[in-house]
Amino acid sequence: MDIKTDAVIIGAGPAGISAAISLQKAGVSNIVLEKSTFPREKTCGGLVTHKTLKKVMGLLEAECFDDISSAFCDVSKKIGIYFKSERSTGTEVSEAVRFVRREQFDHFLVRKYKEQCGTIYEGVKDHKIDNVEKKITIGDDRIIHYKYLVVADGALSHTRETLGYKDPKQGFCVETHIPKGVVTDPDEVRIYFGIIKKGYAWVFPSGEEVCVGLGGVYSKDIDYTDTLRRFLNDLGIDEKSCKIKGAFVPYGEVVDQASGSVDTVLAGDAGGYVDPIYGEGLFFALTSGIEAAKAVISSGELSDSSFKDLYMENMAPYADIIKKGYKLQKVFFNGVAQSFFKKKMRGKDSFLSYYFDNLISEYNYSYGEIRRLYSDYKKEKKKRS
Ligand SMILES: Cc1cc2nc3c(=O)[nH]c(=O)nc-3n(C[C@H](O)[C@H](O)[C@H](O)COP(=O)(O)OP(=O)(O)OC[C@H]3O[C@@H](n4cnc5c(N)ncnc54)[C@H](O)[C@@H]3O)c2cc1C
What is the CATH number of the domain that holds 305? Predict the structure, then answer.
């Protein structure tokens, strides 16, 4: 059976499904190929910043949070920063941080796509891509002919490898979920430095549970599970019964897409679009999916620009954030710098909330502008006093 469509999207995580929903809304034909069947698990801390929440609301044309609240499992305004087990500073932030369980969140988005009569083939493990002829063969009987290909099959993207792109620098994270009653103040979002090299550990509210995890720049010399078990022990948690899961996440540069076909783009983790300091990927997954869809729509209208050029142009500001963050990553996770921050941050509640509100909740400053952020903070503080 031969099927014709404008765009094929590989992977129905947040990157792929946001591309699909956006195309569907614009009336552009598309098909999503997904190897799993929803609901499916995805290892993730589930932290959703305010900028990410706005992306979800925009994508789904939600008028208020209540319209999408069933995709979320928790919320907090309390942030605590720790160095090893010592609390350095803590604050309340202006915009709440929300949390999702990915099996619930991703399934919610897939359902929204299906409600718009989107076409998704789930459980597809045997597709073959011919990106010259622009066709994908599934099993023995289905051939999909497409104009544009959006590759969104995650951090270890098999499609990226098949099409000959270079892998991005990877990070590795492990996590577990434990009942809320086991930890003190389980509704605080906690970040711990000094637990793992070139990374951090976290305790995030997650519904009836908390998600405890850690991760950073990948090194084969780190025993991630053992490091997490020791961290759990330090928190006073009996780690023996904890089920620990791990996964890769891009944690450095975006993938160079220059060599690939002009009708193919890589989105989300497959394209290396993840914050290289905090590992926040949901914002970039949704952004890149939405921008990939916009590029499909525009390239149909503007014949002189290729799909990939339009996409790279749309994604340039986000690639810049990642580039500057990657430069800072080396400084941020350096042991000497961390002891400096530890001293400087102690008790700086108001700076932490300014930093969180302006750089983590929203990218009002880029990672190249930390000094400007600090001087603006001091100016505002002076004005208020
Ligand atoms: C432990 C951990 C904690 C994290 N915590 C956070 C956090 O708190 N906040 C945050 O913002 N980000 C977090 N991230 C990052 C975030 O999870 C990712 O950036 C995000 O999931 C990327 O979305 P995606 O759609 O690109 O990829 P994915 O979510 O990985 O989706 C890819 C999809 O493609 C499918 N697929 C894979 N291979 C194929 C194939 N060959 N054919 C068809 N389909 C395929 C998969 O089944 C999956 O459905 C975390 C990551 C890890 C590992």
Answer: 3.50.50.60
